Every structure is written in C-alpha cells, then in structure tokens.
Amino acid sequence: MKLAIARLPWLLVGIAAALEGVTVAILPFVSSLPADGPISKPPESGLLLGYIGMLTVVLLINLVGRTPLSTRIAGGALHVERPFVVAIWGGLFLALIFFFQAIFDFTPYTTLTVMLRAACSLAASTLIVLVLYRLSAGPAPWLSVRFRWGTGTWRIVATSIWVPVVLLSLYEAIALPVIEQIRGVEENLFLAGLGCGLAAGALAGLCVVALYNLMSRRFPHLRLALDLEDAA
Fold this sequence. Notes:
With 232 residues, this protein is an alpha+beta fold. It is built from seven helices and five strands. Strands 1-5-4-3-2 form a five-stranded antiparallel sheet. β3 and β4 form a beta hairpin. It is globular.
C-alpha cells in the first residue's frame, strides 16, 4: 500500500524540539567546542546521541499515540513497535551527519558556510540512510520500521527519497547555526545545550512543517510517500 502524506502535523515541531534538546544537551560532553570554527563531533558519538535521540522520539510518539490527539492527527491510535531497532537507524543517521560535517568544512567560518555545511551533510546522510533502508528492509524485515495504526500492523518497506533529502537539508541549515551558539557558553553546558537544542528544533521544525504543508497542497506530486506492507 502506498501512503502519501498530505500534511505534516504541527506536533512534529514539538518532537523536533525534544529530539534536538536531548541530543544537544549531551553534545558538549562528547565533542570539542572551539571558540571559532566548527564544533568537532566524532562520528562514534553520533551513534550514541542519535540512538538516544531517536529512542526519545519513538517514546514520545507512542505516548501521544495512546491519546485522543492521535485519532485527530493520524486517524487512529498509533504505536511504533521495536523502538530499539528504530533507534539503531537514528544512531547510524547522526553518525553519518557528524562524519559529513567534518568533510564539508567550508571556510571562512560564517553563518552562511555553517548553513551550507549543514545542508550538504544532511543531504548526503539522508540519501545514504534511505537507500540503505530500501535495500535492507526487504531481505531483512527485522530492520524495518513497524507500527500499529488503527486496527492494522504495518511495516515501512520504502520511502520517497528526494523530498526527505530536501526537507531535512533545509531543517538542518536552519537548526545548526542555532545549535552552534552553545560554543559561547562556559557554565551549565547541559542546560545551555538543552535550551539551544529546543530552540533550534522548534524553529527549524516550524519552518519545515509550514513549508511542506503549503507546498503539498499546491503540488501533490511532491508529497512524502511511504510504501507499506501488512505485517500482521
């Protein structure tokens, strides 16, 4: 079954803020924060941060999915199964992001080059992860994302690729300059990271959700699409 997503729920803004808040709060303790130049983020720390962040997102989705709000947003109760498997994909994704951020080290260090580095690293990472997912979800079903929606159980076999690449690149281009403001903080790094992450996720999430909902109404062929398979 193909599912085209006509509009993104505004709840995603809160989820994006929570994701960034959790990961950026931990970031100062696994990375170096130079006074000038890009923050050094080891890819192996991305595995941990991405895993924790994605696990947090899944738990939030499952918590909301039990409430009447889920019926208004998703048309029924929603529960993501095997959150620890989903979190593995989150860890891989953030590890790749950190890896490519080190490669796309544009100079001089300005807000514009930070945004460019963010967009390029997200484009490369998103493309790799979505292609890997499409190649692995068929032969290794246990690696696929499974969820209960209404009365059925489904697994995602594949997703559209280029629309997520563009949206996530835009998201990170907006979020990263805000996140990197943490370099100016010397005390209470955990709280500072939490605040920067919440602000970055909320701002970037708001822009992306608003843009997608506007564009998807005018250009239905640009909608996000999921290929679903009955997993009952």
